[in-house]
Specification:
The radius of gyration is 18 Å and the shape is elongated. It has 1 helix and 5 strands, in the order ββββαβ. The protein has 120 residues and is mainly beta. It has one domain: OB fold (Dihydrolipoamide Acetyltransferase, E2P) (Beta Barrel). The protein has a 5-stranded antiparallel sheet with strand order 3-2-1-4-5.
Length: 120
Amino acid sequence: MILGRVIGEVWAARRDTRLAGKKLLVVRPHGMLEPAFASRHLVAVDDLDAGVGDDVVVCLGAPARRSAGGNDTPVDAAVLGVVDRVDLVDGALAVAGAVGGIRRPLVLGVAVATAGGATR
């Protein structure tokens, strides 16, 4: 699950019939996800009437499809809840082993020479 803020809405007059009546929101994660895409945001289906400026909890993959209507729904992200408040414990991230988020390299499909001379 991802905690993020709604920064916009996607308007599509033509869409899959399984998404009829559902809003598509643009969500920017609060630093807990480093997507493999340069855009740094995702589009999530919303049944909870969240709006721009709301903090939301988003699930990805199979749980998102199930929450949006079933396993055959063409969805990869769905809003699970609109956040009222977040309480953080002082110093919790300073605990040994606490991680600030997922970190993975951004791969853009270009050849990169490695230290051994190989190209990947």
